[in-house]
Design a protein that fits this description.
Distance between the termini: 51 Å
Strand content: under 5%
Number of strands: 2
Number of helices: 10
Number of domains: 2
Oligomer: single chain
Length: about 280
């Protein structure tokens, strides 16, 4: 069964960080990557993100499906950018170094390839760190840490419940798929795409109905236990902020400062090696 957005327990420093710390670090890291097109910064961030994966002891095979899924969108994004704006790199960098022509307006330039390189680096800068956040954050502890920094516990618990519900949906989808295939519904790649889409309804409809039933059961259980009646509540998975949390947030804040500083030094968000 393919695992998507599952918490993976490992004995690592990344796992010991509180959920709120990891959320703040994720936001700071994402801003640092999104606010600049400086290739030097965008090269450093993927290296650091894969180093974080090594420290967290999360193996790439654990998130291989999502990495492959992201790679498809990354390629599609680059193809569409070139298809609709083949001279965008030339407009951004103000120079034109032609490598070869594909006919018409489709001329491959160094500037356009450099712009596409930056797009790829942006994906590599953000996607791994998002996956790391999901795989190393316990939903219950995440809710507790959100409540600790001022988020209402009803909202925090809703977020945790959503994160915990994703693996349940995956397991249920797998079970329903196996049951339907045992009844003779063909879902393999040997079938045409139209037949596979038609067969998918035999999985999706029971999945939606069972999900609605599960939601109603959880809602009734929470209501019977008086959830939301009190202004405060205790947390079994609560964890105090440590020096490691502070160091992590300072490090990510420093990355954001460096990213913004490079924009000021370059005079824009783009680093231009062609001038």
């Amino acid at each position: 069964m393919i695992n998507i957005f599952n918490y993976i327990d490992r004995p690592s420093p990344i796992h010991r960080l509180t959920g709120a710390t990891k959320l703040v670090c994720l936001l700071l890291w994402s801003f640092a990557a999104m606010l600049t097109y400086d290739t030097r910064m965008l090269t450093a961030l993927p290296v650091l993100s894969f180093l974080m994966f090594y420290i967290s002891r999360i193996k790439l095979k654990d998130v291989s499906f999502m990495l492959g899924f992201t790679a498809v969108f990354m390629v599609l994004n680059n193809v569409l950018v070139f298809a609709f704006s083949p001279q965008h790199g030339v407009e951004l960098y103000g120079t034109r170094h032609v490598l070869f022509s594909l006919g018409g307006n489709y001329v491959v330039t160094k500037e356009q390839l450099f712009y596409h390189l930056n797009l790829v680096l942006k994906y590599l800068s953000t996607i791994p760190i998002v996956l790391l956040f999901v795989c190393t954050t316990n939903p219950s502890e995440f809710a507790a840490s959100l409540n600790r920094i001022g988020v209402k516990y009803t909202v925090a618990y809703s977020v945790a419940l959503a994160l915990r519900y994703i693996p349940d949906i995956q397991r249920e989808y797998h079970d329903i798929s196996q049951a339907q295939q045992a009844r003779g519904i063909e879902m393999s790649r040997k079938q045409s795409l139209s037949k596979r889409l038609k067969s998918a309804s035999a999985i999706l409809i029971p999945l939606i109905l069972s999900s609605m039933d599960r939601i109603e059961t959880i809602s009734n259980a929470m209501e019977l236990r008086g959830f939301g009646k009190n202004k405060r509540r205790t947390w079994y998975m609560g964890r105090k902020f440590s020096k490691l949390d502070i160091l992590a947030m300072v490090f990510c804040a420093l990355l954001l400062v460096i990213s913004l500083s490079l924009n000021v030094i370059n005079g824009s968000r783009f680093w231009n090696p062609f001038i």
